[in-house]
Amino acid sequence: MAKTAVIACGALALHIRQIARRDGLDLDVYPLPPELHNRPMKIAPAVEELVQQLEGRYERVVVGYAECGTRGALDALCAAHGLERLPGQTCYDIFGGEAEIAAAVDAEPGTFFLTDFLVKAFDHVVWRAFGLDRYPELRDDIFGHYRRVIWLAQDRTPKLEARARAAADRLGLELEIRDVGDTGLASRLRDLTSTPGERGIP
Fold this sequence. Notes:
Elements: E1 4-9, H1 10-23, E2 27-32, H2 43-54, E3 60-64, H3 73-81, H4 91-96, H5 98-107, E4 111-115, H6 116-120, H7 122-128, H8 139-143, E5 148-153, H9 158-171, E6 174-179, H10 183-193
Parallel strand pairs: 1-2, 1-3, 4-5, 5-6
């Protein structure tokens, strides 16, 4: 059994598994539903439930979430259980860089972000999650204050680009593509799952 368990956001879990295999990281990944992003106050309780289930089974348990709109609840949980989480306010920070994402939002506050996962799961995680499959007339009520979509592309392919453009079209927004890869997540994952000694900390 792996020495480290990662309780991961469902939108990051596949990427974390891929990086772990590629980089030889000894991890077991436990994903939570990506739909929790639409109800962020449910994230910390869901993480805590998994923490309790994994207690005593691993040398370390870490949290594969950024802050993700929990308003401090996730950080309070991590502090109470002695856990570490991924840095940043959102998973977009992890892929695109905190300064770069902040600059994008400063330049256009009405920016809706997509990752590869969200492009692939757009119909389920965005369109149906907001009820737009049943009430498409609500699109402008929900997304009317947005002005553009930025796709933070980890692995850009023609097929995925077509799906990203289709998603932006359904939202009635212009698409901008930024090729970010997964180096940001890989670096943060290595830091998160390494021991203090491996990080050069006494």
